[in-house]
Amino acid sequence: MVLEIRLSNFFSIKDEIILDFRAANIKSANARALVDNVFQQGKTDVLKTMVMYGANASGKSNVIRAIRFCNTMVFRSHMHNENTIFNFKPFKFDGYTHKPSKYFIRFVSNGIEYEYAFALTTTQIIEESLHFYPKGRIKEIFTRNENLGKEKSEIYSFGDVIKRPMDVAENTSNKTLYISRASQMDREIPKEIFNYFHNTFILQYLGFGISTIEKLSQENKSVLIDALKIADSDIVDVKIRSLKEPGKNFNANLDTLTVTVEEVVQERLQITTYHKRDPQKPFDFLTEESQGTIKLFFIMLTIMDVVKNNKILLIDEIEESLHPKIIEYIFNFFRASESAQLLCTTHNTKFLDLKRMRKDQIYFVNKKDDASTDVYSLYDFSDFRDTMDLEKAYLQGRFDAVPIINDSLETIKEIFNE
């Protein structure tokens, strides 16, 4: 589970922003009623979902992009070579292109709390550290600072957790995160951290291997049918069958769901739907159903995996191509989970309702006068009472995270008459 994320100097993010999943001490009647929006980790209440609102170009997507980049660094940086340029841009103004970008995450894996952080430029790792709380008190696993000297013994310090830590350090270049190399070299805790970022923190709706699709489909058949009914109330049954192995890899791009993807799936699986009009007449799922229905099928497979296994899911613009009822359905899955978490951006103001979401679950993203992205929670507005109309206040610009547009008819006519 995620407890806290901090980012600075990534894309439009200039100064440090904080996303805190540790629930605030809110005593309002609305918050007390939303017991399913949080779960307990030790003595701490943790949020299951967090939504970010903001105008277009405010930087919402850059927050998601930055987290995706940083997490991907953990499980890919051991493949970097000396010519690698990291795939991100620092803030372009005020001299920040020459300053390091920083990432910090506080999380829990197998019941143990960790703090992991690194700083980097587009060409090299500058700092890196990992600490944990094995008995409730912080303990160093390793600390790295490339500015302290040229020798590995000057750059690194270690606790007593990793076996032969300097062997890993000697094989870690300034293009590679130590945690990534240590996992590759079979060190126990680094492998656990690697698996957390690779298998538990899911960065988007993903494609699955054929065996996983079939397994998840069969295990969650009734839920899948219910979800598809929301998109198309005429569907009453779905059947999935593996075909002979054609020798191709399944690699679904669920952002675009291209024809190529459909062809690959079609070669590997036979997915058949049946409709209310004639429950005996089969329809080929990938050629005879709508693109929205097809996309929803794979989305729900991801949701099932995340919720059942208490993972974390990161989604930009969750409402894209999905009906508002589907979005509500997805949020309800997380509410019903034990400790699954969702971080997403959205423009759907339906969830700006304090009978649905706690104040600390709602974040706003705003572009400041210096072109940087600012991120803050509704909880920061202590003067906003539960009795106020949150959706109306947001749309009126109460929290600054909406576009300011002069859209009067007269103004629009002037544009065309210029």
UniProtKB/TrEMBL annotation:
<dbReference type="Pfam" id="PF13304">
    <property type="entry name" value="AAA_21"/>
</dbReference>
<dbReference type="GO" id="GO:0016887">
    <property type="term" value="F:ATP hydrolysis activity"/>
</dbReference>
<feature type="domain" description="ATPase AAA-type core">
    <location>
        <begin position="50"/>
        <end position="353"/>
    </location>
</feature>
<dbReference type="InterPro" id="IPR027417">
    <property type="entry name" value="P-loop_NTPase"/>
</dbReference>
<dbReference type="GO" id="GO:0005524">
    <property type="term" value="F:ATP binding"/>
</dbReference>
<protein>
    <submittedName>
        <fullName>Putative ATPase</fullName>
    </submittedName>
</protein>
<dbReference type="InterPro" id="IPR003959">
    <property type="entry name" value="ATPase_AAA_core"/>
</dbReference>
